[in-house]
Amino acid sequence: MLPSVILSTFLIAIIFIFITPTTNASAAVLRFREAPKFYNSESCPTLSPAPAASTCYDDANAINVAMTLDAAYLRGSIAAILSVLQHSSCPENIAFHFVAASSAASHHLRATISASFPYLQFQIYPFDDSAAAGLISTSIRAALDCPLNYARNYLADLLPSCITKIVYLDSDLVLVDDIAKLAATPLLNGAVLAAPEYCNANFTSYFTPTFWSNPSLSLTFANRRPCYFNTGVMVIDLRRWRDGGYTTQIVEWMELQKRMRIYELGSLPPFLLVFAGNIAPVDHRWNQHGLGGDNFRGLCRDLHPGPVSLLHWSGKGKPWVRLDANRPCPLDALWAPYDLLRTPYILES
Ligand SMILES: *[C@@H]1O[C@H](CO)[C@@H](O)[C@H](O)[C@H]1NC(C)=O
């Protein structure tokens, strides 16, 4: 009797050793501080009460923000959320819509967001990343090939149909201005999305000679004046997106890319192919991008001239990585105040 008890205990111990997950250990131990509650100012419009037992709720005075959520960028996402709330005059009127890879531990992400922002209105939508994974062709930076990076293509399908307008934000940015101003960008002339345009960038260089030398493909931009835009900050009319079937159009370009290489970078070029030249403009202050440095040497970048409402660490380097490594770029100091990560020192005290 006794030896069998000892034996089974031993076996259970062995089983535990083998099934204890060792991957993602560094992500799982991240602990974040709780943000304070943010209150509406008196001039804020009152939202109509949400109908009971319904997650499908949209109010013209609500600001709906979409972001992706994953373990690797969680620290950035939490800083971005804090920055949105802190600079908003009506923070209680903001609802967040997070897209998380369905394979990831989304209950952990939900618990982490709830712990840091107990008052936040948010939903988490699972994204079947295998759907996008099969469409991704390898690009110069492995991070761009992460399927969740393509979730922005599918927002109109992932979010409930009652959500008709969304502000999409990347996870490596902070706002230093009221998101209501960005959300109020007029989408004139039937524009589906609004984003800052950069017409001085060499648009030709985003597509391969294969694309430009193909007679029918090169006609894609005929009758348009296409300019580069960054897809990290966008205001999207989801109703027009759904009506126009733009998810299908983007997927078709991704399928073509699998067969013949028509562009280099990851998720951006299909957006350019479908929308460039037809988007509503947004002031450049709303996407001071490139602060992550260049893709090859990781050099520090400076701000573009002009006012700043949003700082975006697009590019290879991320401020939290450089701060942890004690090798920050000067502008990383502007990200640090939004970092809610508990340092080991704070945990002890
Ligand atoms: C733009 O890029 C293309 C392809 O990379 C290049 O051939 C062309 O010379 C560039 N044009 C300018 C004005 O730099």
TrEMBL record:
GO cellular component, one term: endomembrane system
Keywords: Glycoprotein, Glycosyltransferase, Membrane, Signal, Signal-anchor, Transferase, Transmembrane, Transmembrane helix
Pathway annotation: Glycan metabolism; pectin biosynthesis
Highest taxon in the source lineage: Eukaryota
Enzyme class: transferase
Membrane topology per record: Single-pass type II membrane protein
Family indicated by similarity: Belongs to the glycosyltransferase 8 family.
Record protein name field: Hexosyltransferase
